[in-house]
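Annex B.
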Amino acid sequence: MVQQPKRNMVLTVLILAVLSIFCALPFLSLIASQQAPIALILLTIFLSLALFVQWRLDPGFTVCLVPDRKMLVWIGITGICLVYIAASCFWSSNPADSLQRLKRLGLLLAIGFLAVFAAQRVPPASHRLMLSVVFAVTGFAALFVSEKVFGLLSNTIWASESDEFKAQFLNRPSTYMVMLAWPAAYAAHRAGKNLVSWALVISLPLVLFWSSSTSGALSAAAGFGAFLVTSLNRKAATILFGAVVFVSVLAIPYAIKNEAFLNAAVSAVRQTGAFSAAHRLGIWNFVASRSDEKPLFGWGVDVGRTLPGAEILLGDVESFSPYLDKLDQTFPTLRSSPALPLHPHNAALQLHLELGVVGAVSFCLVVVYAAFSLAKIGSPSAARYTVAWATSWFVIAYFSIGLWQTWWWALSAICLIQFTYFCRSCGADRYAPTEQCKHR
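O-antigen ligase family protein: predicted structure tokens.
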């Protein structure tokens, strides 16, 4: 029989080994910068293993293994959303693809909930371990060196200079940088390194404005603005965030068809000379027009690839034709560009197209509720970072990504897990078992 001191030593080694892997966030974040879903799975395994080992082997470990009320509420909200998305598969133009997307999204959410559950209950990180997340962001420098010196293609913001990279991962590197930087800045703050934290916060928009990613620069700048506003008044900042989400999501289908709005947007695009921006104006106008055909419930989840008529070129989109005449000189190849390549590159319009007004309103409610929840998970100072992250998240979703992309939700989950872990105070009192909640 193993003696108690020896058993405790073995237990301590096992727990520290598992937690050291989890807290080696440079390792996980560098994986996330290439494959976010794989990083999320690894993070979930490490956290779950740490919780399981401590629960089974440490006699002094007492923690409630029943999900708390807030998590149950979120599970309920997620379940309702998935039910509606599942229902949309029945009227989808391609039910098979819609069902496949639903399965991936459901599995990803289940993994994310498991990781958050474990992150709430494993021992809180020390200041030294908190600082490790800072190196997750600075670890991108290693990728930069490998690319610049050795010519290796990597998912860093500087890889956007590569034509090959642009064709496959446009805006993805800047998205990784923005999403991972806010948890890193908060971890530095929690570790008492406020100078490091502020350096990350201030340098983020500066670095991204130096890159060629417009959406990355906008999201970093918006996040920085939200950080400052939340520092002054947390409640006002979250209310302002909610108002912006509702107005921008519900108004975009009408604004993108408005003549005055489009003329102003076309003039701005011509001045910048950004082809991707001009192309997206055309995509958004086409998507808004098609959304009008099924405004209430949409065409079905993930139908962008198979939407009837999506294969046409922008030159054949009647509603955008007057504006193409103004853009021809600056962008001569714009007419021959697809009207809808894969997805609309705008979460709000994608929701209107695929899930209708019902889906768009539901999305607004969930995002706003999530922002208010994030603003309350830690101390008042934590709200600056969580609201800033939520703002950057929304801007990226609004201007850049396809809403259902697996890597996007996996990366979002990784950031939420980090916030959950680092927002906890020292000790696990919140999850200590009650008389009705004992693990043995």
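The longest helix spans residues 347-374. The radius of gyration is 23 Å. Further annotation is deferred to the next reporting cycle.
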